[in-house]
Amino acid sequence: MSAVIPSQSSAPKKANSPVLARPGPAAANAAAASFAALTAKLDYLSPADVEGVRKAYRFADEAHLGQMRKNGEPYITHPISVASQCTEWKLDAQALMAALLHDAMEDCGVTKSELIERFGSPVAELVDGLTKLEKLEFNTREENQAESFRKMLLAMARDVRVILIKLADRTHNMRTMSDMPRNKWERISAETLEIYAPIAHRLGLNQTYRELQDLAFKHLKPWRYEVLSKAVSRARSRRRDLIQKVQSELEDTFRKAGMDTRISGREKTLYSIYRKMDDKHLSFAQVNDIYGFRVILPTVLECYTALGLLHQLYKPVPGRFKDHIAIGKVNGYQSLHTTLVGPSGVNVEFQIRTEPMHAVAESGVAAHWLYKANALGGVNAERLGTQWLQSLLDIQKETRDAAEFWDHVKVDLFPDAVYVFTPKSKIMALPRGATVVDFAYAIHSNIGDHAVAAKINNEQVPLRTEIKNGDVIEVITAPVSEPNPAWLGFVRTGRARSKIRHYLKTMAQTESLALGEKLLTQALRAEGIDKPIDQLAAMRPLWDKLLRFTGNRNRPDLLTDIGLGKRIASIVAKRTANLLSEMGEKPDALLMTRERFMAHESISQGAITLDGSENASVTYALCCHPIPGDAILGYLGRGEGLVVHTSACAVGRKLKQKDSERFIGVEWSDEPVRNFETGIEVTVVNGKGVLARVAGALAAAEADIIHVDMGQEAVQDSAELRFVIAVSDAQHLDTVLRHLKRTPSVVRAERMTSS
Is 611 a catalytic residue? Predict the structure, then answer.
């Protein structure tokens, strides 16, 4: 079976996995008959291609010889069924051969090189993309599942036939789910609903999407499925006359207008009815759009003419018209949708489209094989899901962790979209709930990285603003701007999320490397070594031994680890001094003495100067909120970089008692480049307008309010207000507190300290 999703332990076909047995004559006859049915569907292939498919069948039949499915059929019936489904999409011979061979590598020990030799590289690559990774390569089952899923998705991005075969494989497994043990039904059905059905929808394979949803619903909630099925059946018989009347009136109207139409009824799937009832808390009787009609016409112009005729025939329901022809959906779907009040006041939905649009609506990307390119009436490949497939490759470039990759992809699986415009009137489709930042990254990563402001319909808006249908969006950029970590809290698309994370990781690594180099230089001076890191780097034997000692791959990796606190600079420096001594280089005794005794007696690594521009490499502890003017200490947390505490901080003191070697000297710059946050506690006499007076006092003292907490206590004579404010230094804080103490209703104002 093909790749596993990162949520469960095994794929459904493993529940229907090969069982070794000796097939009887009846089973052999069933297999032969099954392949005969497949060959009858290959009339669109050339004789040479049919022979290639037959050759793949013989190989697969021999490889699976003796293996049986749970229902007692020979295992080869499964690959044949998968290939048969692929013929419905008119896939080429290579895809059909891969469908027949899709389990050969995983279940039969066939190697990729053997497949290349017998069937060529393209077929082998397709089969490999459908094959899970070996579990032995990973520490946990979840890691294996995430990596296997990433492997399949990336193979799909390179060749969409991979996912078409995979969806055919999953569809057949869901059709034969009843043969599997019941304890597997819930897991496999949930997996199908969460992963495979959304992928089918994202690629426009609506027929497969609907079938997978209903089959999963049937086995996930069998009792509800049965009850709903009976209710729909009863409603169908009750409304048969109404449906026939609507169809008759439609045919009569279009015949009088001289229009050549094909009209077919459509019924909402059981799962979509269930979802609507569940989401909107409706009873079955309240779901009034179960039935609808599709009207297929020769041209786009006739589609709009038909819409006008329908609106004359029945009254339209306000707000229920959508033009997906002028603005197609992101998965290539095009159609006019309108809901009308039919006979007896029953709402009936109509979908109006051309034949090529109908092909794309039902088969999505598979329409490339179903119809010649020129028969699709100008539907371009970009709209048939390939834009999303390309975005998978873009996300992969920034994401090396398989679980994180899967998180990004999940965000983009549901194509419920809003359509907005660039200032040059280009239409952009983005998921519902997307923000201005998502829009910026959809245009180009450079625009997203440097976005500082935006205008929607010529009005200034914050970057977190949610975009709506029809908005005209202009993004304003600045070369000095960079992504804000807070953006991750509201962006909606996987592309934006992966780009922001990649940028922040790169910046953090760069800053940590610079900090690590600075720390190691200071630690080396304490050991009497005055050579810059660059000069030491030229001594290849020294660094080879040092990297073996620390376990790092290269010099930047080691320096980054020092900056992140994963390695202690003083220990690395001592080891470096020993290695230099073995090579005949003696430390400078005078430098060693000066560095060790001029620094604070408990700190052996010199002092780092802080001015607030350090970004990700330095964190100011939230427990004590240090500000310029405070006595401070730096703690190299494991993997956290440098964390700055005040000298009086209780948390910092406890850490120093347990882990003193991780503390380094830090000091404030004479000219900090920004304001710093600190906490204050204000006791006030309750009364009307007291909070406004306190806020006014803070504003008068030029302190920015970052956060305010008024507590949850019931109203009393007095109240404790806790603020987080931004000040330039300790002197500025003193000014703020003096302003507060002179404010009417303020009883007490003081800085908050860690307990």
Answer: no
